[in-house]
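Input record (Table S2, row 233):
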Amino acid sequence: MKRICIIGISGKLGLYMAKHALAQGYEVTGLCRAQSAHKLDHLKGAIILFTGNTDDPDAVARAVAGCDGVLCVLVPWGVEGYATKTAQAVLDTADPDARLVFSCGWHISRDGKDRYPLKLRVFVALFGKLALWARFADLRDQVEATRRIFASNRRWTVVRGSNLEEGESEGLPIWARHVGDPVLASNLTRRTDFALFMVHALSDDRLIQEAPAIVGRNAASVRSNPERALVPQ
Ligand SMILES: NC(=O)c1ccc[n+]([C@@H]2O[C@H](COP(=O)([O-])OP(=O)(O)OC[C@H]3O[C@@H](n4cnc5c(N)ncnc54)[C@H](OP(=O)(O)O)[C@@H]3O)[C@@H](O)[C@H]2O)c1
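Output record (NAP complex):
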């Protein structure tokens, strides 16, 4: 795999993914909103940038054409079904054999077997209601986006991020199939390492049609439960 596309390349996660993908020798194409293109000025000449809304199927089709892999940020903001439209556009327009890697949060459950800590359940319930009331975000959007991804027979991976923090890379995060696994209890990952895991998933066939929930590899919960940690290779 040589050429990849990052949908949502101008965001914090997108910029980290671009940095890691370039460092790993990928040819990088990206799509971002026109008003955000300036955030990629430092990568002029290193990437091919398309501008357009990342939920616009025509813009997505132009950006992903000829790419062997797509790293897609499922935008958590707004109440217009932005993440769902983005996911559908990628599913519809990416090359048939392309590896498709999507980002979302722990609150997404593929099979209903995740067990969420009370604190997280309360936060999701309160934030969900408040965000919808303020028309700031609709948590149901990522749920619908990922439902469509899980139902597709594409070569997808849905990476479920824990709480994030800035800081130097600690290396590839650890993953587990279900939230509630004690290895994930620390619920914290460096944002740069979330991006590193997304890029890694492009070439790790064991992650095809998996929805790994990730946590930083130096987290206390990983040190206490080393036997439970699924280590990407
Ligand atoms: N933040 C967390 O703690 C956390 C935790 C777990 C998982 N995640 C997941 O990580 C991914 C990235 O999240 P992030 O919080 O770190 O944000 P981020 O990387 O900054 O990405 C936000 C993205 O949303 C776009 N965006 C922002 N407002 C928008 C709007 N009104 N309409 C359309 N697009 C808009 C941004 O594009 P522009 O550059 O054009 O503004 C950017 O591409 C998401 O999939 C999220 O679910 C985040």
